[in-house]
Design goal:
The protein is of the alpha/beta class. It has two domains: 3-111, Enolase-like, domain 1; 116-346, TIM Barrel (Alpha-Beta Barrel), CATH 3.20.20.120. The protein is built from 13 helices and 15 strands. The chain is globular, with a radius of gyration of 20 Å. The structure holds magnesium ion. Magnesium ion (MG) binds at residues 186, 188, 212-213, 240, 260.
Length: 350
C-alpha cells in the first residue's frame, strides 16, 4: 500500500506571551505531518523555532520530497531501515517530525506504546518542571510563580535579562520569597562570563537546583573559565543551546554537568536515545525538554522521560489551542497514554 505524507500548519497560541532572552512570542507556527497508509495514520510534528532560522516552507519541501517518500515506503516494522534511508538534511526539525511519525507507525504496527517497546517503566518519569518566562510586571510575575508553585515542585525561571544579571538576581530572589517550590534557572545564552561568575554562586546560596545555558552557545572556553572560577559546590550547569545533535555531546564532557535533550534539536527519538547513552558514558545528567510544541511532540519526548533525571515537558500546558491529547498531567506527574505508538488522539473539547 502506498504511503502519503500530509503537511498541515499547526498554529499554536501561547496562553501568556512568552519572553526569553531572544524576545517575546505569542504564536508559534509549527507543522503537523501525517503519514497515511490506507486508513492508518501516524503523526509527527516539526517545531518551527524562529531563533533557529528554520522555515515552514523548507521543512514542508523536505518531508514531501520524492526521496523522503521512497524512504518511508517500506515495512513499518523496519523502523531503523526507514530512518537510515532518509536523505540527509541540515534541518533537525524536519528529521524530528519524520522520526516521531515513524516511531508512531512502528508502535502502532506492534500494538504497544513506545515506552513499553523500549522496556521503560513509566513510574520513573521525573516530575516535570514548569517554566516561568521573564516579565517586567513584577506583581504579575510573582503571582505566576506563587500559583505555579502550588502545582509544581520545580519551577524553571527564565533569565538573561537585557538589563543585566542584577535584574535576573533581583527577580529570582523575589521569586524565592513567594514559593516553597524548588527553583532552577535558564539563562538561554543570556550572560557573559563575568555575569555568570557573579550570579551563579549567589544562585547556589539560594538553593537553585541547576543553572541552564549560562553562556553563549559557542563559548565553550567560557564554560571552562567560569567553572574554574566557581566555588566547588556550585549548582550543576546544564547545556541546552550548546548541545544540539549527537555530535555535540562529547565536546561538553567535563564542561557541562548535564544536557537538555530536545527532539527538535537532535532530530528525533533515535538520536535522543543515542545522546542519553553518550551522556551517561560521560557521567552527565540528562534532562528531556521540548520547544513550544503540541501534545504530538511533547508526548513523543515523554515516552523517553523514564531515562531522564529531569523532565521539562510543559509546552502543551503553555498552549491555549492544543488540537491533540497525549501525555497528561496529574499535579506535576506526567502520565503516559497507554495506547499504541505515541498514543496521541485528537483533542475532544470538554
Ligand atoms: Mg533551555
Amino acid at each position: 500500500m502506498t504511503i502519503t505524507v500530509e503537511v498541515e500548519p499547526l498554529s499554536l497560541t501561547l496562553r501568556t506571551p512568552f519572553t526569553l532572552s531572544y524576545g517575546t512570542t505569542t504564536v508559534r507556527e509549527n507543522l503537523l505531518i501525517r503519514l497515511r497508509t490506507g486508513d492508518q495514520i501516524a503523526l509527527g510534528e516539526a517545531a518551527i523555532v524562529p531563533y533557529y532560522h528554520e522555515t515552514a516552507g523548507r521543512v514542508a519541501a523536505y518531508v514531501t520530497s520524492p526521496a523522503v517518500l521512497g524512504a518511508l515506503n517500506r515495512d513499518p516494522l523496519h523502523l531503523e531501515d526507514a530512518l537510515n534511508a532518509l536523505p540527509r538534511t541540515p534541518s533537525s526539525f524536519a528529521r524530528a517530525a519524520l522520526d516521531i511519525a515513524l516511531h508512531d507507525r512502528w508502535g502502532s504496527a506492534l500494538g504497544e506504546p513506545l515506552y513499553r517497546l523500549w522496556g521503560l517503566n513509566p513510574q520513573r518519569i521525573p516530575a516535570t518542571s514548569y517554566t516561568i518566562a521573564m516579565d517586567d510586571d513584577e506583581a504579575a510575575y510573582l503571582e505566576r510563580v506563587r500559583a505555579a508553585g502550588q502545582q509544581f515542585g520545580l519551577l524553571k525561571l527564565k533569565a538573561g535579562s537585557p538589563a543585566g544579571w542584577e535584574r535576573d538576581w533581583q527577580r529570582i530572589r523575589a521569586a524565592r520569597q513567594v514559593t516553597g517550590a524548588a527553583l532552577c534557572v535558564d539563562a538561554n545564552n543570556g550572560w557573559d562570563r563575568a555575569a555568570a561568575q557573579a550570579i551563579i554562586p549567589r544562585l547556589g546560596e539560594l538553593g537553585v537546583v541547576f543553572v541552564e545555558q549560562p553562556l553563549p552557545r559557542d563559548d565553550l572556553d567560557g564554560w571552562r573559565e567560569v567553572r574554574r572560577a566557581l566555588p566547588a559546590d556550585h549548582p550543576p550547569l546544564f547545556a541546552d543551546e550548546a548541545v544540539q545533535g549527537v555530535e555535540s555531546v562529547a565536546p561538553l564532557a567535563g564542561l557541562a554537568d548535564g544536557i537538555n535533550i530536545k527532539l527538535a534539536k537532535c532530530g528525533g527519538l533515535r538520536p535522543a536515545r543515542d545522546m542519553i547513552a553518550l551522556a551517561r558514558a560521560f557521567g552527565m545528567q540528562v534532562m528531556i525538554g521540548c520547544m513550544v510544541e503540541s501534545s504530538v511532540a511533547v508526548t513523543a519526548a515523554a515516552h523517553l522521560a523514564p531515562l531522564a533525571d529531569y523532565a521539562d515537558l510543559d509546552a502543551n500546558l503553555l498552549i491555549a489551542n492544543d488540537p491533540f491529547e497525549g501525555v497528561l498531567l496529574k499535579g506535576d506527574r506526567l502520565i503516559l497514554p497507554d495506547r499504541p505508538g505515541l498514543g496521541v488522539t485528537a483533542h475532544v473539547a470538554d
